[in-house]
Structure formats: C-alpha cells, structure tokens
Amino acid sequence: DTEVTQTPKHLVMGMTNKKSLKCEQHMGHRAMYWYKQKAKKPPELMFVYSYEKLSINESVPSRFSPECPNSSLLNLHLHALQPEDSALYLCASSQEIRQRANYGYTFGSGTRLTVV
Amino acid sequence: AQSVTQLDSQVPVFEEAPVELRCNYSSSVSVYLFWYVQYPNQGLQLLLKYLSGSTLVKGINGFEAEFNKSQTSFHLRKPSVHISDTAEYFCAVSDRSGGRRALTFGSGTRLQVQP
C-alpha cells in the first residue's frame, strides 16, 4: 500500500457544526502532516506529528484540533469554523529511518471543505 | 528558514514543445528539493526529488530537473509536453538539518498545454 487515504473527499458544514477529517496510511511512515490549500495558492503547513506526538503547530486557531490515535491515523477535528476556512485540506506522510530521514512525502487527494 | 520562488505564475506552451519551469530557493542550510504536480481537484503527486548525488534528477512522466547549487536553482524540464501535462506545478524545499522536517512550497506555476 503506497497511498495516503483521506475521507471524506467533500464536506459541507455549518459554522456551528462539529466534524472530523480523517487520514490513513499503511506505509509505516512515522511523520504525518496537515496542510491547508486555498484556491490558486500553495499548500500551507498546519500541523506536524512525529511518532504520534505533535511536533509543529503553525499557530493554527484552536477551532482546528489535530489528533494522532496511532501511527497510521491522523484526524483533524473541526468546530465553529468560519467561511474563510473553506479550502482543500491535504494530509501527507513521510518515513523517518533512524538518523537519516527519507524525505519521501506522500500526499492524499485531500478533503474539499466548504463552510456555510 | 527557507523560501522558494517560482518566477512564472503561468506558462503557456504548445503540445510537443519543450518546457522549463523555473524554481529558485533560499536557505541558510543544505536542503532537499522536490517538484510536485497537482491536477485539477486532486492532491499533490511527487514528480521527482533531489536528495544527494547526481545533480540531474529524472522523474515520472518524462520530467527531469537539475540542481544547481551555485545558482540555488532547481528548474524542471520536459522535452515534449502533452495536453495531459496541463496542471499546477509546485517546487518545494525541506531543510536537511532535521529541525522542521516539513516542506515549504513555492507559489506554483500553471502549465497550460495548447493543441
């Protein structure tokens, strides 16, 4: 299995809703990432998990809450979002081998989120 | 800190013509370099990467890139493009120091292949 699977592919939610985005990989990668991509813009890093621990939080608002239940799963919990949070949310993973990182980032196809 | 500059926001080209998409980077440390492609309404797919060794890197779909340390560039080339190559192309950099272990992307170049 050489894929990162993201679900759902599309999500429409109201500003008072609570929803979750899911990401799964079975490549044995120990680093996982959440990126946000607005239309016609490059992806922007949100969170990095390394060995199931949160390593980097790029000053993301608390209405976005990441969770890494195990080495294969990464969730992004959403609550009280704003319309400007509408974007493509991309999950990625990469493998780290001992002291030498193999920088093979694999991206999922993303969840297109619309906040109404 | 590092940054990536893709000077061309759009590159129109005719089918079967050669193309070069430019990428320059800035970093105070040694870096790894990547090119990703994004087709409409899809995620990012790795085209190729430079980690070490030969400065000419070959990737998928007939693309190649050359790492030039003195010019801090990593330009992407293809000798003959197809309509199906129409997509957004992102250059990205990751530092080797192990501190952040995450990608920094350029602003992207839209390749438009015309018949």
What percent of the residues of chain B sit in helical stretches (DSSP H or I)? under 10%
Helix and strand element order of chain A: EEEEEEEEEEE
Determine the strand fraction of chain B and express it as a percent band. over 45%
Proportion of beta-strand residues of chain A: over 45%
General shape of chain A:
globular
Helices and strands of chain A: which structural class?
Answer: mainly beta
Largest beta-sheet details of chain A = 7 strands, mixed
Largest sheet of chain B: 6 strands, mixed
Average pLDDT number of chain B: 91
Q: Detail the poorly predicted runs of chain B.
A: none
Q: In angstroms, what is the radius of gyration of chain B?
A: 14 Å
Give the oligomer, counting copies of the same chain as homo and different chains as hetero: heterodimer
- Give helix and strand order of chain B, one letter per element, not per position: EEEEEEEEEEEE
Distance between the termini of chain B: 41 Å
Counted by DSSP, the helix tally of chain B is 0
- Distance linking N and C termini of chain A: 36 Å
Features of the shown structure:
heterodimer, A: 116 residues, 4-stranded antiparallel β-sheet, globular, B: 115 residues, mainly beta, 6-stranded mixed β-sheet, 12 strands, 0% helix
Explain what this protein looks like in three dimensions.
The complex is a heterodimer of chains A (116) and B (115). With 116 residues, chain A is mainly beta. Chain A has strands spanning 4-7, 10-13, 18-25, 31-37, 44-50, 53-57, 64-70, 73-79, 87-97, 100-107, 111-115. In chain A, the strands form 2 sheets. In chain A, strands 2, 4, 5, 6, 9, 10 and 11 form a 7-stranded mixed beta sheet that branches. In chain A, strand 4 (31-37) and strand 5 form a beta hairpin. With 115 residues, chain B is mainly β. Helix content of chain B is 0%, strand content 54%. Chain B is built from no helices and 12 strands. In chain B, the strands form 3 sheets. In chain B, strands 2, 5, 6, 10, 11 and 12 form a 6-stranded mixed beta sheet that branches. Chain B has a 4-stranded antiparallel beta sheet with strand order 3-9-8-7, with no helix packed on it. A two-stranded antiparallel sheet of chain B has the order 1-4. The model of chain B has no long low-confidence stretch (mean pLDDT 91). Chain A binds chain B through residues 6, 31, 33, 40-43, 45, 48, 50, 55-56, 90, 92, 94, 96, 101, 103-110, 112, and chain B through 32, 34, 36, 41-46, 49, 51, 90, 94, 98, 100-108.
